[in-house]
Structures are given as structure tokens and as C-alpha cells.
Amino acid sequence: MAAHSLTTLHYLIERHRNLATADAAIDWHLLHFRIATLDHRVFKRARSLGLFDFEDSVVAASGESSGCGWIITRNEQDFVGSPVPAISPSGFLEILDAGDGEPT
Fold first, then answer.
1. Strand, helix or coil at 71?
2. Structural contact between residues 51 and 81, judged by C-beta atoms closer than 8 angstroms
3. For residue 46, how far is the Cα from the chain centroid?
4. Which residues pair with 2 in a beta bridge?
5. So what's the pLDDT on residue 99?
């Protein structure tokens, strides 16, 4: 999970629920996900990818540097040219159900 996703997640949950629920959601994600770090190298790589959206480029570059197998997204077309293949949430679940891959 990209590090910047946690701040967005916290903001949205706190805005639509409350601080305690947002804090609990972050704690759950920290327990169950490995968080991809963002550093100067990742941002430089993101700039070199040439994807249309900078945020998508950061996701792709952080996934690449963390050795992720997939980027799970509703917008697969936004990641055409990404070094990490994009897959829909339903496609990812199908892979897990079939036993064809381990999530990373």
C-alpha cells in the first residue's frame, strides 16, 4: 500500500465518520498491509515513467521499489506503461481464489 494512501484514507474516514474510526482504520491497515516507502528515489522514478497522472506514477514507482506484484485499481487504463501491472479488484480476487498467485 502506498504511504500517501494512508493520509488520504484517514482524512476521508474522519470527514465522513469521526476521528476514532479513522484512527482504527489506519491501525487495521498498518497491521494487515506492508506500506511502501516514499523517498527521493521513488519520486524521481515516478517523474520518469511518463504516466498521465503524477499520483498514479508515484503509486507505480512505489510499487516497483517495494516489489509489489500488482497495482489493484478500478482504473487499470491509468496504469498502461506502469512497471507494475494493474489489475481490477475483482481480477485480483479471482487470482487469489484460483490460487494462481500470492499477494505482495
1. strand
2. yes
3. 14
4. 36
5. 80
Q: Which residue has the cell 499477494?
A: 103
Give me the amino acid identity at 101. G
Beta strands in the chain (DSSP E): 71-72, 86-87
Q: Strand, coil or helix: what is 72?
A: strand
- List the grid coordinates of 100: 494462481
Give Cα 84 distance to the centre of its chain. Answer: 11
Q: Write the pLDDT tens digit of every residue in 31-64.
A: 998 899 899 999 999 999 999 999 999 999 999 9
Quick one: pLDDT band at residue 100, thresholds 50, 70, 90?
low
* Higher pLDDT pick, 104 / 100: 100
User: Which amino acid would we find at residue 21?
Assistant: T
Evaluate if pTM is beyond 0.85: no
Alpha-carbon torsion angle 52, 58, 63, 65, nearest 10: 120
